[in-house]
Structures are given as structure tokens and as C-alpha cells.
Specification:
The chain is an alpha+beta fold. The chain is built from nine helices and six strands, in the order αααββββααααββαα. The protein has a domain of 131 residues. Strands 1-2-3-4-5-6 form a six-stranded antiparallel beta sheet, with no helix packed on it. The longest helix has 68 residues.
């Protein structure tokens, strides 16, 4: 009898199947409107901004200088225009420019004087040891590039946690709805029976205590319905943090949006542990983030070792004078300079190298432990899903047996060999077993959500279904 009422209730809900709220709808809402996820997505924009800032150290520099000596013994004017461009290739810098100096110059300032069309120049600076393979500009650029990967992995890590939380809230809501429906069904059963019992008392076929007992059961079951309704409302409120409308405002899922029943649960394949562990170790963003952070630290170590090298730079420049006039150089010149610089102690660079190596060792230890944690999480998640499946199946069998006992007790009552008290006890036992079955099935889907979290299933091209 209870089962038939539940089936009727589920059929009524199925009639509104178009309005059923699916897990996919909730997850779409999370991806579209969940504020914490939208906030963490800004990490990618911040990383892109840092990348632009790092590229800014290779910006072309344009400068103009105008000088003049007026009202003195020497009367002259000078203009100097130049462009500097640092390159990522081999740490080179190239430059070009033009200058003009006209008027009277002191003998010791003769180099400021040019011909009428001025002096054109171009040249380059090439490091031979320090700053050739890497320098602070290229190190910052490389680290900013890697930081974009760190930001992406941080977003992925937050995303799978948020999706897992939303999934658990969804199944909590579905479970609350199923418990509410079970409570409604047993109340409906007692309410329908009450008129029949009253008629039996009126005809003298039943003692009045049977009606009183049934009315007590009605009051008890109304209390259970109120409790179930409150549980459904609370679950809908919790779900509303993830389920939002088009404008991003939380919306309460309605009772008529509940699915007719839980999806069918399936047993997990026993020999998938090794494969799932390999999948998790490959997908989990926290492991990949440690790998990227180690690469960033390797850049620091490489830069520190670069600072231990001698600074030997080659400077080459070409100048050409144009126009008329007499100056004591040119008209064309090719100049070359060799610079050498080496701090004797270099302790700052040595300290930075030791620090970078220590951080890399630290990251290696943390990576190893995180891999161990992921392995343990996968093993525990699989164990939890398997245990939840077995418990749900056992409770399904318990409900079946409780329902048989209920029908048998009801048949005894119809034959005059029982009373309403024992019928109510059997119905209550079926109700309790049904509620436990709902909780067990919900535990299965919550455990499966943790299993998906352990495998970072949200990052897979297609999510497997439980």
C-alpha cells in the first residue's frame, strides 16, 4: 500500500518532468553565476596583467634632450634624439639616434659639435658571460609566463572543489525531497484508512480504540511530514547558493522540480584502483601546480648562477656625420668597447642560489606527499562508493522485507486476528527503513561526488556518470 502511494506521488511529479531540476542545471548555474568561482577566475586576468608588466621591461625607449648655452662666452645649441630597444635574444640591447650641435664650443667640449645635418648613430651591447643566457628581465618574463599556468591550475583546483560541493548539495536536496514524499505517503495511507475504521466502529465490527490508535498515527505522521518539509526547505536554501537565476541571484528549487526518483546506482568495478590513481595523479591541479612552481624556482636558481659569472660586455657603435662643417672626427666611425666587471665575493648571488635550491628541495618533498595524499584519497573514495552501494542494496532488501511484514500484518487485521497498533508499528518500520534507504542512496551519490573530486573529474573532457 505504501509503495503504491509512493509510485502515485512519483508519477505526479513525473508529469512535471519538463520542470525537473537536473544536476547539470545546477552545475551550469555554478559555471555561469557562482560568485566565488567568478572571483577566482580573476586570477587568470591578474596573471595576464603580470605578464604584460614583465613584457614592459622590453619596451622601446624613446628620449629627446635639448640643451643650450646662451649669453655666455660660448653660445651653442644641442639636440639629441635616441631610441633604445632591449632584446630577449642573447640579452642584447640595440640603439639608434641622431644629434646636432651648433654654435661655439670650448675646446674640451669639441665632441658636442656636429656638422650641419648632425650625427647619426646606431649600435649594440652584447653580453658574453653574465646576462647572456638569462637576466632579470627574461627571468621575470619566464616566471610571469609560468605564473599564468599557476593561475590556471589554481582556478581548476577551486573549480573541482566548488563543483563537488554543489553536487553534494544537489543530492542532499533530492534526498530531502524523497524523505518528504515517503512521509506524505504514509500520512496519506493513515488518513484514507481513518474513515474506513470509523465506519467499522459505527457498525460494531471494530472497537473504538482502533480509530483512536489510527488518529494517533495520523498525528505522528503529520509531525514527520512537517519535519520532512523543513528538511526539504533547508536543503533548497543550501542549494540556492549554487543554483542561481540568469541575473546571478540565488533561487529556491521548488518541490515540483524534484526528480521522480534517484538515478539507478551501479556497482563500481573492483580492479579500477590502479587506473584511477594514475588518472588522478595526472589530472590533479595541486600536483601540477607544484611542478610549475618548481620551474619558477629553477628560473631563480639559473638567474643566481648567472650572477656568479663575470660581466664581460661588447659594445659596438657606428656614427656618421652629415652636411657641411668641420669637426675633428668622422665623417664615419666604428667604435668597439670591451667591459669587464667581477665582484670578488659575490655572496649575494651565492645566497640566492642556495635559497633557490632549498626551495626546490622543499617543493619536491611537498610534491611527494601530495601524490601520496591523492593516492590515499582515491583509494578511500573508491572504498566509500563501494561501501555505500552495498549498504544501499542491503537497505533496499530491508525495505522489501519490511513491506512484506506490513502487508502480512494488514492481512491479519483484515481477518480479525490483529489490531491497528501492530499495523501502525509495521508501517512505521517500513517508513523508517525507507528513510534509511533514501539516506543510503544519497550517501552513495555524495561518495561518488568525492570520488569525482579525487579524480578531478570536472576537468575531464566528458564526465563519467555514476
Amino acid at each position: 500500500m505504501i509503495r503504491s502511494l509512493i509510485v502515485l506521488a512519483l508519477a505526479a511529479s513525473a508529469a512535471n518532468a519538463q520542470g525537473v531540476l537536473r544536476l547539470e542545471d545546477v552545475l551550469d548555474s555554478v559555471n555561469r553565476s557562482y560568485p566565488p568561482l567568478l572571483a577566482v577566475l580573476q586570477d587568470a586576468q591578474i596573471a595576464e596583467a603580470d605578464m604584460i608588466s614583465a613584457l614592459g621591461r622590453f619596451d622601446t625607449s624613446f628620449r629627446v634632450r635639448v640643451d643650450g648655452d646662451e649669453f655666455g662666452f660660448y653660445d651653442n645649441e644641442r639636440v639629441d634624439v635616441g631610441i633604445d630597444q632591449p632584446l630577449q635574444f642573447q640579452g642584447m640591447n640595440v640603439y639608434s639616434g641622431w644629434r646636432r650641435g651648433i654654435g661655439d664650443f670650448a675646446t674640451y667640449d669639441g665632441k658636442l659639435e656636429t656638422r650641419s645635418l648632425g650625427e647619426f648613430r646606431t649600435g649594440m651591447r652584447l653580453p658574453l658571460f653574465r646576462d647572456r643566457q638569462i637576466d632579470s628581465r627574461r627571468a621575470d618574463l619566464r616566471k610571469a609566463d609560468l605564473n599564468r599556468d599557476v593561475a590556471r591550475l589554481s582556478i581548476d583546483q577551486q573549480k573541482i572543489v566548488i563543483i563537488q560541493a554543489a553536487t553534494r548539495r544537489y543530492w542532499d536536496w533530492v534526498a530531502a525531497g524523497q524523505r518528504f514524499r515517503v512521509a506524505q505517503a504514509v500520512l496519506e495511507l493513515a488518513t484514507r484508512r481513518n474513515d474506513i475504521l470509523k465506519e467499522g466502529v459505527r457498525l460494531g465490527q471494530l472497537p473504538a480504540i482502533e480509530v483512536t490508535e489510527n488518529e494517533r498515527a495520523i498525528l505522528q505522521r503529520r509531525s514527520q511530514v512537517v519535519e520532512g518539509e523543513r528538511g526539504l526547505q533547508q536543503a533548497a536554501i543550501d542549494l540556492s547558493l549554487f543554483y542561481r537565476d540568469a541575473s546571478g541571484q540565488p533561487q529556491l528549487a521548488q518541490e515540483n522540480q524534484l526528480p521522480p526518483a534517484f538515478p539507478e546506482i551501479t556497482a563500481m568495478v573492483e580492479d579500477r584502483v590502479r587506473e584511477d590513481i594514475e588518472t588522478a595523479l595526472r589530472r590533479r591541479p595541486e600536483i601540477q601546480r607544484f611542478i610549475v612552481q618548481r620551474r619558477q624556482t629553477e628560473v631563480d636558481a639559473k638567474l643566481a648562477r648567472n650572477q656568479l659569472l663575470p660581466n664581460v660586455d661588447v659594445l659596438m657603435g657606428f656614427t656618421a656625420e652629415g652636411g657641411t662643417g668641420i669637426v675633428k672626427r668622422g665623417p664615419r666611425e666604428l667604435k668597439a668597447t670591451l667591459l669587464f666587471d667581477l665582484p670578488l665575493q659575490r655572496r649575494a648571488a651565492e645566497g640566492r642560489e642556495l635559497s633557490a635550491e632549498a626551495r626546490m628541495t622543499q617543493i619536491d618533498h611537498r610534491t611527494r606527499f601530495t601524490r601520496d595524499q591523492v593516492t590515499a584519497e582515491v583509494q578511500d573514495a573508491i572504498s566509500a562508493v563501494q561501501a555505500a552501494y552495498r549498504r544501499a542494496k542491503l537497505l533496499n532488501e530491508e525495505v522489501r522485507v519490511a513491506r512484506q511484514l506490513e502487508e502480512m500484518e494488514r492481512s491479519r487485521f483484515d481477518l480479525g486476528d490483529g489490531n491497528q497498533f501492530f499495523v501502525n508499528l509495521r508501517e512505521q518500520a517500513t517508513f523508517d527503513a525507507s528513510v534509511r534507504e533514501v539516506s543510503a542512496i544519497a550517501d552513495y551519490f555524495r561518495a561518488y561526488a568525492l570520488y569525482e573530486l579525487a579524480l578531478a573529474e570536472a576537468l575531464a573532457p566528458t564526465r563519467r556518470q555514476p
